[in-house]
Amino acid sequence: MGHPPAHPHPRDRGYRKVDLVGHSFGATVARMVAVKHPDAVDGLILTGEGAPPNLTAFEEMFHLYMPAGQHPLLAWRRLDDGYLALRTGAKTDWFYDRRTTEPHVMLRDELTTEPSVYPTDPAYGDISLNGRIRDPVLVVVGQNDRLICGGQGADCSTPAALKAAAAPLYGPQARLETLLIPATGHSLNMHRTAPAWYAYAQDWTKRRVYGGR
């Protein structure tokens, strides 16, 4: 029997460029793709991630997770204990800046929660691997992102401070740019401030990914 063809390279599909965009753990996955498959990626946009994390905040939030099978909104799915979910109410406290988010948006996010599953390898997503990234990187952080800003995490007091905090994680080939969004929490896309980073990301993609500058 013949062997199936190898999985085609993205550029063999007719794409001129591949720009990976990920948020939070999705950004972690995007970073790992760029580290392990550098020839498959032309640019990275990392939101709510990509800068030094506030590990104390992560440890504090971890205690608010519960097995999805025990969550009142998810128990009917009968998922195994590998699936986790934040307790109802935790998203509002941890992911939002109430000044720039509509109350009904936060409520809907709480009531439509989804389970999460994470790699068991503690080294997955290790920020020390960022130095291997050979493609342009844009890091976007909300100024009130509790998982990134403060503590031993990034200094988010000014755009320059965020850039200084993140820059040591990357090599020169990343040509790192950072964007700090005022009055915004971790869930950037759910805030009224979201259009600010959309416009910047589009310009960055034209310059760094397509323009090669």
Question: Quick summary of this structure?
Answer:
The protein is α/β, with parallel strands linked by helices and 213 residues long. 28% of the residues lie in helices and 13% in strands.
Would you give the CATH topology of the largest domain? Answer: Rossmann fold
Q: How many domains in all?
A: 2
Biggest sheet features: 4 strands, parallel
Please report the distance between the alpha carbons of the first and last residues. 48 Å
Global Rg: 18 Å
Series of H and E elements = EHEHEEHHEHEH
Describe this structure in words.
- It is a single chain.
- With 213 residues, the chain is of the alpha/beta class.
- It has two domains: 17-55 and 124-210, Alpha/Beta hydrolase fold, catalytic domain (Rossmann fold); 58-111, no CATH class.
- It has six helices and six strands, in the order βαβαββααβαβα.
- The strands form two sheets. A four-stranded parallel sheet has the order 1-2-5-6, with helices on both faces. A two-stranded antiparallel sheet has the order 3-4.
- The longest helix is centred in the last third of the chain and has 17 residues, at 194-210.
- 33% of the residues are buried.
Topology, pairings included?
Layout: E1 19-23, H1 25-36, E2 43-47, H2 55-62, E3 65-67, E4 84-86, H3 90-95, H4 103-111, E5 137-142, H5 159-166, E6 177-181, H6 194-210
Parallel strand pairs: 1-2, 2-5, 5-6
Antiparallel strand pairs: 3-4
